Amino acid sequence: xxxxxxxxxxxxxxxxxxxxxxxxxxxxxxxxxxxxxxxxxxxxxxxxxxxxxxxxxxxxxxxxxxxxxxxxxxxxxxxxxxxxxxxxxxxxxxxxxxxxxxxxxxxxxxxxxxxxxxxxxxxxxxxxxxxxxxxxxxxxxxxxxxxxxxxxxxxxxxxxxxxxxxxxxxxxxxxxxxxxxxxxxxxxxxxxxxxxxxxxxxxxxxxxxxxxxxxxxxxxxxxxxxxxxxxxxxxxxxxxxxxxxxxxxxxxxxxxxxxxxxxxxxxxxxxxxxxxxxxxxxxxxxxxxxxxxxxxxxxxxxxxxxxxxxxxxxxxxxxxxxxxxxxxxxxxxxxxxxxxxx
Length: 342
Ligand SMILES: C[S@@+](CC[C@H](N)C(=O)[O-])C[C@H]1O[C@@H](n2cnc3c(N)ncnc32)[C@H](O)[C@@H]1O
Ligand SMILES: [Mg+2]
Description:
Distance between the termini: 60 Å
Strand content: 15-25%
Main location: mitochondrion
Strand order of the largest sheet: 3-2-1-4-5-8-6-7
Structural class: alpha/beta
Family: Belongs to the class I-like SAM-binding methyltransferase superfamily. UbiG/COQ3 family.
Region (Disordered): 53-93
Largest sheet: 8 strands, mixed
Bound molecules: S-adenosylmethionine, magnesium ion
Order of helices and strands: HHHHHHHHEHEHEHEHEHHEEE
Helix content: 40-55%
Binding site for S-adenosyl-L-methionine: 132, 163, 184, 229
Number of helices: 14
Low-confidence stretches: 44-70, 84-93
Mean pLDDT: 82
Pfam family, one: Methyltransf_23
Oligomer: single chain
């Protein structure tokens, strides 16, 4: 009897229907249960997955068999030199909608002063930095034929860090030799990033701008590698955002996106654990329903002419406090793809 009830509860849970789930718990869905409502609304108000293909039907993905082995670099395509190539590349710049989500922008504005406090709200990003940089270095060096052991392994690459915040990723990218542009929707973040970067000759050349990715698409900017770490879960529409990222990528260039998976484990670890129990992040930093799974990322990248090459999990070792790359993508993950040429 008890097992049948559990089975029905599981079925209701998996059905993604909050009302059915609450009824299985013998609760009236119309009644207010503060904690349960918070949990169930986070869990069940997921983005309608069918919306993603509908919005993207406007343009079919490029046939990957058409990808040539060599392509011009961002240096030759951006901003003025080869107009015809640039037209070809920007022909697929579909996004017109704003990626800004006012609620998310307000949340990040409130903690903008704390970017360089490694014990503050951005502590997880500081702790994650060496691990994600190792992944970025190895994938970009492999893709662009560079030596990952050299002092400046990313030398010669134009990279954009979209949603750069205070610059905690932009700076090490510049130290690795890349020509870096960091953009963020919040003016205060850009000011803090600029002031911090000025302190060191190796980072003072970073171009910081308060602008969105879609605005840079309008300006026809192009980069060898487009990186957006921990941003896609905070934008208005991930598929449109991904289209903008793809439009900023030079043909045969690279794209890297990291985020939090939408699983029961991520709810337990990244929301209940990190926000409510450990209080590393302000409560409400992440909406579970806005999280995007690796499969959804792969689909929206594919629909933006980006072929996913590799997806790695990033896992926190609770004993050492260090993050490691892993096959376990159930909580944090980073995806690397390359742009098909046309
Ligand atoms: C969690 S932080 C990640 C910062 C940085 N990428 C990192 O991982 O260290 C998210 C950042 O994205 C920015 N952001 C949110 N929505 C954005 C948008 N639509 N366009 C550009 N930046 C955005 C926020 O202001 C914030 O700085
Ligand atoms: Mg986040």
